[in-house]
Design brief:
This protein has 19 helices and 15 strands. It is an alpha/beta fold. The strands form two sheets. Strands 4-1-7-8-9-10-11-12-13 form a nine-stranded mixed β-sheet, sandwiched between helices. It has a six-stranded mixed β-sheet with strand order 3-2-5-6-15-14.
Length: 473
Amino acid sequence: MDGIVKTLTRFVKFSKRHRIDRGIVNALPYGNVIDLILNGGSVDDAIENLRRENAEKQKEMLDLLEKIIRENKPQPDDILVIGSGNVENILTATNDIVVAEKHTVERSVSHGGSGTNYALRLLAAGHDAYPILSIGDDQYGQEIISRIVQQAKMDGASLGVLDFLNVDKYLSTEMSTPSTTIVVSPNERKMYSEKPSGLASFKKYMEKQIDRFQKIIEGYPSVVMIGHIFADSGEYENIDKGECTISLLTRYKSRSTICTNFGYSQLKHGSKFWEQHLPCIDIFQLNIMEAKLFFSDDDTVLNLVDMMNWFTDRNINAVITLDKFGAVATHSDISKCAIIGWPIIDRNEVVDATGAGDAFASAILSIISSAPRNRQNKLVKIDEELFRKAIKEGRIWSAEACMHFGASTMLPNKSDIIEFSNANKASLPLACNPISGCEDILKLIDIAFSEQVNVTKKNQKNVTASKGSLTAS
């Protein structure tokens, strides 16, 4: 292998797992050729273009590429995201919605779903996110991937991310991409999510994409995020309930840090089903409405105090987000204690809380993926200090998300997050008290959400719509 092929091959391999500063590349002689490679262009074309130059220019270019490889070896930042994807139709009303009355609304279109939200937010914040989404090779699916690719290029993602998002290898012809309608009024929001079709093929599709991903990075991801997986509902003959999630936990346990933010299709199986699998999860996140559903199979867990005790009894690192009101959490190192993160924005600043939980989870992933790891590429331990840091960051990201319509309409970068943090009460400390000493506060929070958290099976009704089955939530 001659020098040109050898060096360019090494550079491309390096670029698949490390972000390369585009400014540095563009300052190089013929840097535009390398920039083309980093945006998914042909390596063969770059080799041919470089061969046309004289020996002096070739040597100068190759020496500079070798220097970039030697001097720019940050910690690999590979975050594997598995979750849902959909197109969001956002209807904003100026007055509260009253059934059977006409309302004037403003309509906007965005992209959402847990997996889409994580990927877009992480890419915007400078992380390499590899999303596996339950979307199809249709108009909506193409729109979602196009937007993620655009975000990846804009924020300088590694070559591996762009390679992974190659449409010809990525989109499934067996699944369809759903749409979600979000109705936002001054005091509430309602979400109607269309159920995707073709989900019987999702596990096979997921495993195929994971194999592609691991070949690209030649190893295991630093962090795995498991969001809402529709196929885990137990409604498909070839996929048992929770099977996709359990297979991911089995694959990555002790190899990668695992975070989860389950959706209805997983949570409906209840705490007794998931209890044996929770030790595989490093951070278990859900919102208070989802927590009520999660514990609906256990008549000994009746309120937020019971939930906190249940998690601490099992040494689970758990985060329960409270919509626009902050979060409460438990950590395995501080038994029988509750960590409380009060909100940092005022109620009148909240525009739309859609996607606040996904923003919170994305912040946790951002903090964890940046922490030191051992040789197996897994965090040595998510200790209390790191856990607190992640919750503080989650509080900032979710508060910022509440100030915009839709889950991914506005995507802050690192500078935006720092600016927002400095302008708000982000330094507000987290409270940490024995659960027995803050029962009144936890019960008050529970009562405050009692109107919203009636998420039992009888309330999970299917609403017939012209385009298919919609689930009200």
